[in-house]
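Journal club prep, notes for RB
We'll compare a predicted complex against what the paper describes. Inputs for the glycyl-adenosine-5'-phosphate case:
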Amino acid sequence: MDKIVSLSRRRGFVFPSSEIYGGLGSTYDYGHYGVLLKNNIRSLWFEAMVQERDDIVALDSAIILNPKVWEASGHVSGFTDPLIDCRTCKLRFRADQLEQSHCGRKPSKHPGEWKECDLTEARQFNLMFQTQVGALEDESSTAYLRPETAQGIFINFKNVLQLARRKPPFGIAQIGKSFRNEITPGNFLFRVREFEQMEMEYFVPPAEAERWYRYWIDERFNWYVKYGVRESQLRKREHSAEERSHYSSGTTDIEYLYPIGWSELEGVANRGDFDLKQHTEHSGTKLEFVGDDGERYTPYVIEPAVSIERIFVAMLVDAYDEEVVADRDRTVLRLHPAIAPVKAAILPLIPRNGDMVEKARGLYDELRKRHIVEYDDGGQIGRRYRRQDEIGTPFAFTIDDHTLDDDTVTVRDRDSLAQERLPIGAVRAWLEEALERPWRTPKA
Ligand code: GAP
């Protein structure tokens, strides 16, 4: 994980937030390549979940909802973690994760293991961030930052059913920020307090719930494989009844082998009719499906839910590679070309050569109309290649002496380091075809 954090920082993917003020624990800002990587993850999720399907529509609900939503959903009473304070070192721990926590004293021990440790009894701590709506600070103005995007979908069920004229099975997909006052955030972006969720609620006839639950576990698993995550580093893990959330009658985690061990990347849950029934009861608005023949029922909900942050870390970890080439160390991000922040680099071999620069800028201007590409004329060519390797750019086009003679360029493949020559006029079509090709990581 340290190598991933360091590369992210060095190459401007992710910065610790508010750094000039000493930071704010486990809060991050995204730099240029981080933004591009996130954009790709977001749009490939949207493509698979909405664009390529007839049965799912999009939604963008508010972050601050009527607080009654969170009473109905069970979050006000039940979205809690057990918390323990240490009166000696003043640190806070999750009571159910003492084995994974470290006391503030050195050498490192678990809380409670030093004789000076003075731990309080566990108490329940609600993870929702509270805020005040309007100028008055009283109980009636208390509201919450959403801890999940899902509830915004349930409360819009009727709107979509009527206006998008849908009938089960159909889904509503939403991408947006969620907030949780995690007691022990950490492991880089893996557990943060502010993260971007991508959730889809799929409404089905109750008798079909089990089938769709299995379907969505497979669909989502295959999405990761399609975008280059090694299958050997992914697994499905079904929750036991004790582990499941209050609303769930079946949950399977798609886990990734992060540097911290197998951990949840995405969850797929069968939420039954819990949410629509709760909101029907609390709001007085019937959230059910009524068919043309008068058939009526409350649909069951199957929910694949993930954050961009967890995918971001999994993809960087999976792509990170080090090798020695011609006696030199090379660090390379072997990202799927569709995920890579920059699709191609355009490099004039000799940046002082005006003719080379003109050709290179011409190619750059042509390619940037369709793709995120980068013009790079800073430093020796070897250094420029290494920089592009570290940000995962799959292809580099170099403009050299030959280009001035015969209008061909060299294309270098990030993974194999193979080079071939192409007519400059064919580069755009070549790149488009290369980006469409199926890709598998050469990493073991
Ligand atoms: N609507 C269901 C729900 O929110 P969850 O398992 O609590 O379920 C869903 O969260 C996904 O959101 C997780 O699988 C994970 O990908 C992501 N997630 C949850 N908490 C997170 C955090 N503190 N930081 C980053 N991602 C988080």
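Talking point for the session: Residues 148, 150, 180, 182, 191-192, 195, 197, 199, 264, 266-267, 303, 305-307, 309-310 surround glycyl-adenosine-5'-phosphate (CB under 6 Å).
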